Amino acid sequence: MSMGRFRIWLQRVGFVFVITVALVACTPLAQFGVGTTSIAAINSNPAGYETVFIRGEVLQSIGAFGRGAYQVSDGENTIWVVTEAGLPSNSIRVTVEGEVVQGITIAGRNLGVTLREKQRLSGG
Fold first, then answer.
1. pLDDT digits (tens, 9 = 90+) for 58-85
2. What predicted TM-score, i.e. pTM, was given to this entire model?
3. Which of 3, 59, 86, 109 has a CB 3.0–4.6 Å from the CB of 66, allowing a cystine?
């Protein structure tokens, strides 16, 4: 392989590596607020979002056997998060990736705009 071809190959491999690292790094950065969406923005235009990251404090939860919903506050607004992965404790900070949905009812209570939890990152 000539030196010119090697350099081109090395540039391509480097480019692929940088893109891969950037994509993998997006999820952990959400734990620090980078790339999160405000709850107010979601509540005011739920149709404008599909999958989002939010960050905030768990205020309360409803459900049993690890299934149900928990309410998250970002300090100004709240949203319910529906989960099948266990309910978090109240007063802890969470970062959640979820799908924006409307019209979910749990225990006879319509939760309005909610997130269907895809993953929950510890801390926040």
1. 999 998 887 899 999 999 999 999 999 9
2. 0.74
3. 86
